[in-house]
Design brief:
There is one protein chain. By secondary structure, the protein is an all-alpha fold. It has a domain at 4-95. It is built from six helices and no strands. Helix 3 (29-41) packs antiparallel against helix 6. It is elongated, with a radius of gyration of 18 Å.
C-alpha cells in the first residue's frame, strides 16, 4: 500500500491553517518545523514556485492539490523524510484548531475523507421543493 499520497495530503492539510493565519502563527512552534522540512524538499525552481504559490494562496484547493501531488512524489523517493514527517506531524496536528462533526444517515457524505473549509459552511441539503397550489 502506497502511503505517500495520504501522508502528503495530511501534511498539506496541517500546514494550510498555519499559512491562512499568517506569518506570526507559522513563525513559531511545530508548524514552522513542519513547513521548513517540507520547503527543504522542494529544491528546483519549479518546486519552489509551488511552495511560494501555496504560501500566497493557501485557501486555493488547486494550489493545495499541486503541492500535495509534488510532496507525495518527493516523499516517495525519501523514506527518511517520511520518517521525520511522521515524528513531527502529531505535534503539528495538535496545534491546528480542529472541529469534528459526525454526520450519520446522509446521502451527501464522502466516507473517509478530509475536508478543509473556512468561512460559512452549510451541511446538508438546501433544496426545498416547490409547493404546488
Amino acid at each position: 500500500m502506497d502511503v505517500q499520497p495520504d501522508l502528503a495530503s495530511t501534511v498539506i492539510s496541517v500546514i494550510v491553517p498555519f499559512l491562512i493565519k499568517g506569518g506570526e502563527e507559522i513563525a513559531k512552534g511545530v508548524g514552522k518545523e513542519l513547513l521548513d522540512l517540507v520547503k527543504s524538499l522542494f529544491t528546483s525552481a519549479k518546486d519552489k514556485a509551488i511552495v511560494q504559490e501555496l504560501e500566497q494562496k493557501p485557501e486555493d484547493q488547486r494550489v493545495q492539490g499541486k503541492a500535495e501531488l509534488k510532496l507525495a512524489e518527493l516523499i516517495e523517493n525519501r523514506p527518511d523524510v517520511a520518517e521525520q514527517i511522521n515524528k513531527i506531524l502529531p505535534k503539528a496536528q495538535s496545534e491546528v484548531e480542529r472541529v469534528t462533526i459526525l454526520i450519520r444517515n446522509s446521502k451527501n457524505v464522502i466516507v473517509s475523507s478530509q475536508i478543509s473549509a473556512g468561512g460559512d459552511i452549510t451541511v446538508g441539503d438546501t433544496f426545498q421543493p416547490k409547493k404546488h397550489e
